[in-house]
Amino acid sequence: MKKIRRRREGMTLVELIVSLALLSILMVMVVGVVSPAAKTFARMQQLQFAQLVLDNVEDEIKSQLQDAAGNIKIYNVSNGGNLVSAPGSDSGAVLEYVNTESYVVLMSADGCEETTLMQSGQVMGTESAASGRLLLRYYWQKAAGSETEAYKYNYKEGGKLVARAAQQVFADKYYMGSYLKLTFSFPNGVGEKDEADYINVHAELYRDAGRSELLASEDFIADLRYKATRIDDVTAIEE
Fold first, then answer.
1. Is 115 within 8 Å of 125 (Cβ atoms)?
2. What is the DSSP letter of 142?
């Protein structure tokens, strides 16, 4: 009687080890190809997000400066430095202007220490902002003269920072983990008491709060609907 041979099923230990080794080699090759591609995609996506943030910042700054209707000044200070008795400059991180409602407006991305918000002599609260965020602060003019005469406003009272109002234009999450830096400058040839039709803006976006790892940058011109007169006189004072 013929003996029936049964078909062997499964794998031997040696075959299993060889298969796993081949699979491991294949996975290493796949990861070696996919990982750089994934990093490149992530970087491109981050750059796209950064450009979107800068585009919206540009639109907001242009919109705000449509209301500049008086004197305009640039401070060459860093890290939200003290503006009391500071003169104007050709370029810097803080832009000051009078808007159509006769408020003095400070625009910057350098943040501010705790500031007391006051209206009609009454304390309405406090506001502080970290650097890397577009910030607007509003002040009453203490004295208004001619179009070419420097106004004054209380930047400090009793050693404390004060303002009528303060506004962080975008929420922290809007920046998607990045940090903004702004540099404003007057057009070439615009000196003190000259009229300016626009302001040059250099906007940068950084990966880190220390603003040392540049992610993207943008240069643009913010047109002024009304001609504004450049002043370099002292405007921010302390009482």
1. no
2. S
Residue where the block lists tokens 């950084």: 206
Q: What's this model's pTM, rounded to 2 decimal places?
A: 0.79
* Token pair belonging to 159: 């050693």
Measured between alpha carbons, how far is 108 from 72 in angstroms, rounded to an integer?
Answer: 14
Amino acid 82 reads N
The SS3 of residue 7 is coil
Angstrom distance (rounded) from CA 222 to CA 72: 13
Cα–Cα nearest to 105, from 146, 149, 151: 151
pLDDT, tens digit, 9 for 90 and up, residues 172-200? 888 988 999 999 999 999 999 999 999 99
Q: Name the 3-class secondary structure at 9.
A: coil
Mean pLDDT across the chain, nearest whole number?
84
* SS3 of residue 224 by DSSP: strand
